[in-house]
Each structure stands twice: as C-alpha cells, then as structure tokens.
Amino acid sequence: MSGTGRAAVFLGPGRPFELRELPLPELEPGAILVRVTLANICGSDLHFWRGDAPLALPPDGWIFGHEMTGRVAALGPGVRSDSLGEPLREGDRVAYCYFYPCGRCHVCVRGQRAACPSKVGRATGPGEFPHWVGAFAEYYYLRPGGYVFRVPDDLPDALVSPVNCALSQVIHGLAQVGLGLGDSVVIQGAGGLGVHATAVAREMGAATVIVIDQVPERLALARAFGADHTLSLAEVPERKARVRLVREWTGGRGADVACDFVGFPAVVPEGLEMVRHGGRYLEIGCISRGRMVDLDPSSLVWGTKTIVGVIMYDPWVIPRALDLLRRTRARYPFDRLVSETYPLERIDEAFREAEWASRAPDASRVTRAALAP
Ligand SMILES: [Zn+2]
Ligand SMILES: [Zn+2]
After folding, report:
1. Residue 102 alpha carbon to ligand 2 centre in Å
2. How far apart are CA 62 and CA 55, in angstroms?
3. What distance in Å separates the CA atoms of residue 61 and residue 284, rounded to the nearest whole number?
4. Ligand with smallest separation from the Cα of 42
5. What's the rounded Cα separation, in Å, for the pair 51 and 99?
6. How far is the CA of 67 from the centre of ligand 1 (A)?
7. CA angle (336, 340, 342) in 5-degree steps
8. CA of 239 to the centre of ligand 2 (A)
9. Residue 116: nearest ligand to its CA?
10. What is the chain's percent helix, strand, coil content, to nearest 5?
C-alpha cells in the first residue's frame, strides 16, 4: 500500500512517546491492514510504561498496545471473509486477536491455542516490516491467519475496544477455572478486567460476586456491574478482617472461586485464603516475570485448592464476547468503562492519567483511558 500513517513509538520507561510517520506496508496474502479507531490503555501496558515488566526493546523503539478495535483499511490477497466465514470488505468494523497461535506445536494441536508458547513473537521495531505491530498507532497489521471477526453495526467502538483483551480474557479465564451455576466468586481488583469479570460471572450463573479494590469509584462501578458485596482496602485494611468478611458472605466456607485481576503478587496468598476447601484460584493479573511472593504450599494441599493460570484466550471467545455485549448492554453500564478518550498526540497525558499504582487511593478515577488515533 502507498501512503503513510502516524504511530506513537515507545522508547522506554520514563521517556515520552515519539510520534513518527511510517510507511503503510505491502500486504502479504492473508493479512489485513486495520485502521485503528479506538485503543485502550490496558493494565499490562502500564506495566511496560512504568518499567515493572521486563522488555527487550527494539533499538528503534516499539509500538505497543493491544486492546483495540478498528475498520478494515485493506484486505491482503485472498482474504474474503472473517474467521467465521462471514464476508469481509474494506470499511467493515472488526475485532481481532492481537496474538498468533502457531497452529504447529503440541499445545496448538491439543486445541489449547491460548497456551501456545509461540503466540507472541519477539517485539519488532517500527523500522522493521510490518511496522504496525501495536494499538497506539493509526494502523495495525493483522498478520496472515490472524483471527478476525466482523463487529455488529449496533455496537459502538467504546464497547467493542475492550473485547479483544479485557472482556475475552475474563470470559476465557472464568471458563478455564470452571465457574459454574450457583458459585460464589471473589474478584480481586476492579479495573477493566475485574469490572468486566463481575458482569461475566453474573451471566455465567454465579450466585455471589464479591469485588475487592482500594478505589471507591471502581467499587461503585463494580456494584453497577452486578457485585453483591464490595470490599474496600481503605475501609478494611486488615487482611484477616477481609478474609473473615468473605467467609461471612459465603456461608462461612470461603468462595468457590477467587481471581487475581490486580497484577501484584502480594494479593495472591490473600486470595487463596479466601477460597474454600476444594475451591479454585484464577491467576491472570501477574504478568511481570521475576516478582515473587511468599506462599505456604501446604495451604494448597490441606485446602485441596487448585490454581489455574491463564494468559490470553482461545479465538472462539471473541464472537461470544460480542454476543454478550449485544444481549446484556441494557443490564450493565459497559459504556462507562472507557472513561476518557485522547488523541494520539496526547498519549503521554493519557498514560499519566491511567496510572494508578503509585497514587493515593482516591486519586484515580480512570478505568480505561483510550486513544482515538
Ligand atoms: Zn490487555
Ligand atoms: Zn502453537
């Protein structure tokens, strides 16, 4: 394709993004060029930006971001349909996976595509084909074979942009951990993932949904998304007292399922303690390698507890997520999840606003800051 577009290039933690003009790529057979219309700042993006996730940064910087939606700008040779066989044309709105299960390994052949060890390749710089590898840019290059789904016209971008990360991630995670009818569930962290998980747990038949966070606005949002109980770290600073409250709310037993959507290892032992004997713990939040936590394994043995680790999701989840939004958008305020939208040139400001880890509990109101590139 001829022409150029703009991208926000990340040069490392603590440094401002650099806006660069980049060439549009020649499309390989099977590839799709997407014109990004909305790109959210996800919690994992904050880890990179902050510098608490290890990253081999390419020498000329990196375009990152992955939670996004857009329109088909150009279809590569041979592409006529989406991943469900529905006709796909230029201008169609799409939701898509930002990772690429290889299809040619033991794990993929076993049908566990989300667990494919090769689904995320090394980070490539903006100078290297296909240039457009992240969401914080005007274009995204969906590699050949990438999973893509046409978006129903009646869903606005603000609802669709969390689909390919937060929403699909929690649907897949809660399915993997076996959340079922009548279960009680503890959700640690009421950010984008936790709030989505609240509604998804409800829709999957959970009887009791408990959400824990430190930001009052986030807990209020969790209640609007169907939480039965919210637990404020500010109001109940003692871990023991929090565990006791969860037991009280779950018939004295503890929760059938607890989930880490916080991303700091320190919350894991507490979450495990909130799980009943024979219950399950879903670990999704902690993506930073090398961060440790003290854990007494005998509590797993004597408690007969299972930990389920999940990253990303199988592709079938995206159409389910889109369908969930259509069916339930009148029940939950999904439109409140993207709280602020910024143009691409204000990306530094957007990240500063989205940052919450180092702030006072009541300082952050932003659930998902979004860029409209
Ligand atoms: Zn994400
Ligand atoms: Zn594979």
Report:
1. 4
2. 10
3. 27
4. 1
5. 22
6. 6
7. 145
8. 40
9. 2
10. 30, 25, 45
Q: Distance between CA 158 and CA 326 in Å, rounded?
A: 13
8 Å CB contact between 30 and 182: no
- Going from the Cα of 109 to the center of ligand 2, the distance in angstroms, rounded, reads 7
Ligand 2 centroid–CA 45 distance in Å is: 24
Residues with CB under 5 A from ligand 1 (ion): 42, 44, 67, 165
In terms of C-beta density within 10 A (0-12 exposed, 13-18 middle, 19 or more buried), how is residue 259 classed? buried
> Per the structure block, which two tokens stand in for 292?
């440790």
Please give the chain's pLDDT, 373 residues, in tens.
789 999 999 999 999 999 999 999 999 999 999 999 999 999 889 989 998 877 889 999 999 999 999 999 999 999 999 999 999 999 999 999 999 999 999 999 999 999 999 999 889 999 999 999 999 999 999 999 999 999 999 999 999 999 999 999 999 999 999 999 999 999 999 998 999 999 999 999 999 999 999 999 899 999 999 999 999 999 999 999 999 999 999 999 999 999 999 989 999 999 999 999 999 999 999 988 888 999 999 999 999 999 999 999 999 999 999 999 999 999 999 998 887 899 999 999 999 988 865 554 444 455 689 999 9
DSSP conformation letters of 82-151: -TTS-B--TT-EEEE-SS---SSSHHHHTT-GGG-TTSS-----TTSTT---SSSBSEEEE-TT--EEEP
Ligand 1: centre distance to CA 46 (Å): 10
Tell me the CA–centroid distance for residue 114 and ligand 2, in Å.
9
